[in-house]
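Quick note —
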Amino acid sequence: MVILIGTHLINVNSMDNLIDLLRKEREVKGELKHGPLDLKNDRRDFIQEATEELLDSLNYLSWAFEKGQLNPDSYLKIDRDLRDATAMLLRGKDG
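Predicted structure written out below.
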């Protein structure tokens, strides 16, 4: 599949590859907005940040379902996957 990212057409051979490209694009945008990531000096709790983002995702997913943007089967599967990921982070953070 060929996708357009910015002004570039990119050939993507798998969904994982596409996700990695989109993730990197968000990372670059974040660095342009906030400056380069400095993990040695960054005091943020990235597990907490990821947990909060997953909780936000659950809200967005629910609202998308309520608007009719997702069918029930898709909604239930994605909701379950996000809940499982959130639970793993919460368990890992607490020991």
